[in-house]
Amino acid sequence: MFRILFITSTRLGDAVLSTGLLQHLLRTHPDARVTVACGPVAAPLFERMPGRDRTLVMEKRRFDLHWLALWRRCVLRRWDLVVDLRGSAVSFLLPARRRVVMRGGRRPGHRTRHLAAVLGLVPPPQPVVWFSDADCDRADALLPPNGPLIGLGPTANWSGKVWPADRFVALFERIAAIMPGAVPVVFAGPGEAERAMARPVLDALPGAVDLCGRLSLPQVAACLSRCALFVGNDSGLMHLSAAAGTPTLGLFGPSRSSEYAPAGPRAAFVEAPGEPGIAPIAGLSVEDALRAATALLEPSATPRPVPVGAS
């Protein structure tokens, strides 16, 4: 049995982007048993992953003692491969036939390219998401059977990334005008802060399906996979949607699309005018977002590529 320890992010978006690397390892080592170490927010992402032995949830502790706790849980097992995307010292203190460690610090290019470089993969493997038949049944029970579903992700982990709620509403209304019967589906993470960000959109769209904080990540992925389009702020939900294969439009202001644009078979992004990574997201117009969204909805259209090969 080939044993892999895969240490990935505490943040959902980065963890989603690392799934392509995991999928590559599962294809390369079909008999592998994988232990995933990650933060509590990202942990449910791996529940349905084939070949998963266990998930070690790393709760942050003072003085970085969470790394000591991880070492204690892993040191008695001999690993065939340790993949450390956090650049920790723990990887060098575990018995392993081979270890690859991603160095820290910022660098140019898309995050998927940075991750792929750990194993020397070109081009970078695209993210994936795993969900079950039961998750699909749950999605079918929650979502209306008729009308194209338009997913909206009006939340983010930082207020600077959040496009104004009234523009999400206006964008949906413009999309509905060209897609008769369109149904808004509002996604958000758990907690009061996420619901507060989503509330203005839900209030303005009384026919919306409210999926804010109600589902597990695999269930969210199953619901996203049924959407004709997802439009959302730069967030973990945006990355999850793109990994699910849903046509996904990411909205960017003061975060870098060159590093964190959604990566998937039908993914694109639109940025606020101004210097990339600095421009206020309030400068992004409904018209620009609509133009990018309708391009994604055209079957023959080629989405704006994610710049994974940028140097």
UniProtKB/TrEMBL annotation:
InterPro entries: Glyco_trans_9, LPS_LOS_Heptosyltrfase. SUPFAM superfamilies: UDP-Glycosyltransferase/glycogen phosphorylase. Keywords: Glycosyltransferase, Transferase. Gene3D superfamilies: Glycogen Phosphorylase B. It comes from the Bacteria. Coiled coil: none annotated. The keyword Glycosyltransferase applies. This is Glycosyltransferase family 9 protein. It comes from Rhizosaccharibacter radicis.
